[in-house]
Amino acid sequence: MNKDFRVVKKCRICKSSKLYKFLDLNKMPIPNGFRKKEDLNKKEHKYELGCFFCENCSLVQLTIVVNPEIMFKNYLYFSALSKVMMNNFSSLAHEAYLAENLDENSLVCDIGSNDGSLLKFFKSYDSKIVGIDPAENIAKIAELSGIPTEVEYFNSISAKKIRKKYGLADVITATNVIAHTDNLYEVFKGVDILLKKDGVFITEFPYLVDLIDKLEFDTIYHEHLSYFSLKPWNLLVEKCGFEICDIRRLAIHGGSIRITHRRKNRNLKNPAKKTLEFLLDLEEKKGLSKKETYDEFSLKINKLKEELLTLLRSLKKDGKKIVGYGAAAKGNVLTNFFGIDTKILDFIVDATPYKQGLFTPGMKIPVYAENRLLKKMPDYAIILAWNFANEIMEKQETFSAKGGRFIIPLPEIKII
Ligand code: TMP
Q1: Of all protein residues, whose CA lies closest to atom 18 belonging to ligand 1?
Q2: How far apart are CA 186 and CA 394, in angstroms?
Q3: Positions of E strands within 133-221
Q4: Which one of 110, 145, 220, 229 is separated from 211 by 20 to 30 angstroms, measured CA to CA?
Q5: How many angstroms is it from 60 CA to the middle of ligand 1?
Q6: Which pLDDT belongs to residue 183?
Q7: Domains in the chain: boundaries
C-alpha cells in the first residue's frame, strides 16, 4: 500500500472484485484541505476521485482510500454551526431517550463525536456520555465544553479500551461518520464489544436514493468512502449478527437515512421489516442495482457542468459580481471539478471561524466571514452549501431585499 492512499480492489461489504467504474471527477486535493496564504505556492497533493459500483451487492464506493491521518487529524468541520443539524440531533436524542428509557445510569457513546453537539442533547437528559473522535483539535473543543472525548478511531481495540474505562453502552450513535470508515466490519465488531446485550446502535448517513435522484455528485469526495443504499447495508448488518429495527428518511444533508440496529434476536418480531422491504423495493425501482443508472448519473453531471459554466461566464461577461456561500467540502468538489476559480468567484463566505482567512483547496478562493456578503453586495451568491440553502437564505434576507440573488446549483440550476 502506498503511504498516502490505497487502491480499492474488492467491495468493502461483499468482497467481490466485480467493481464497475462509472464516475471520474479527476484528481483533486482533499476537499477539507483549506490552505494558508503563505502556503499557496507549495505543492498541493491531489488524489483521484472516482466511484465504483459493485455489481454483486450494489455498494457504491470510491476507487481509492486516502490515508485517514491526512484527512482527519486536524479537521475543520464543526457540527454546531447549523440550526438544522442541531434540530436533527435534538430529535435523535429525544427519540432514543424515550425508546430506550435512558436515565442517569445509562451510557451513550457517540462515534465521530466532532464538537460534542449530539452528546450535549443526551447530557441534557442526564445520561452519562462519551465521545470518540480522532480529530485532536475538535476533541479539545468538545472537552472544553464538558463532553468527555476519547481521541481515537473507533474499532475493536478502542472499543475495548472505552468499555474498560466507562462500562457498556445503552446507546451507540454514529452520525455522518460510517461513510468515512474503510473497515465496516471493525465498526460492528467495536459496537458488539461496547454495546449492552439489549442496547441499540443508531447511525445516520446520506441515502444513495437521494444522491442519485438529486444529482448530489459533489457529496462524493475522498472522506466519503461509501454511498449506501439499504441493500448492501442490510447485507453488512446481517453478516455482523445485527438487525435493523427502525428506519426513517431525513431531509438533512440533501437526504439521509437514520437506522437503528440491535443484535439479532429470533424471538422478537422485527418492527422495521415492512419499511425495510418497502425501501429495498424502492431502490430496485430506482435502478440502484443496475450499472446504467450510474452511467446516466455521470452524463447528467457533465451536462450540469456545461450549463452552470455557461450561466456563470455569461454573468461575468455582463460585468456581474459573483461570490460563493458556504466553503463546504462539497463546494470545493464542485468548484474543482467544474474549474470555477477566482476569475468567476471573488470570494466565498462561511460561518466557520477556522476556515475564514484561508483559501479553498485547488481553486484557491479566499474564504471570509459571512458579513462580507452585505459589505460587498455582489450581484449573485452561489450557494455551495446547498443543503443549508433555506437556512442561509433566511439568514441573509437583507441581501435579497437589497437586490442580491442566490444561485442554487443542484439538482438543476435555480436563481432566486
Ligand atoms: P457541510 O454541507 O459540509 O455541512 O458544510 C456546510 C458549510 O456551510 C460549512 O462550512 C458551514 C457553512 N455554513 C455557513 O457558512 N452559514 C450557514 O448558515 C450554514 C448553515 C452553514
Answers
A1: 392
A2: 42
A3: 149-150, 169-175, 195-206
A4: 110
A5: 25
A6: 97
A7: 79-287, 292-415
How many angstroms separate the alpha carbon of residue 409 from the centre of ligand 1?
15
Cell of 76: 475543520
Predicted confidence band of residue 2 (pLDDT cuts 50, 70, 90)? low
What CATH code is assigned to 292-415? Answer: 3.40.50.720
**Burial of 411: CB neighbours in 10 Å, binned 0-12, 13-18, 19+:** middle
Pocket test residue of 77, 79, 82, 117 for ligand 1, highest count of atoms within 8 A of CB: 82
Name the helix (H) or strand (E) containing 132: strand 128-132
Residues with CB under 6 A from ligand 1: 81-82, 326-330, 350-352, 370, 385, 387-388, 391-392, 395
- The angle subtended at Cα 11 by Cα 161 and Cα 334, nearest 5°, is 90
CATH assignment, 79-287: 3.40.50.150
Q: Helix, strand, or coil here: 304?
A: helix
User: What is the sign, positive or negative, of the torsion defined by CA atoms of 340, 346, 350, 356?
Assistant: positive
Distance 257 CA to ligand 1 centre (A): 20
Task: Give the tens place of pLDDT for each residue, 76-129.
Answer: 777 767 888 999 999 999 999 999 999 999 999 999 999 999 999 999 999 999
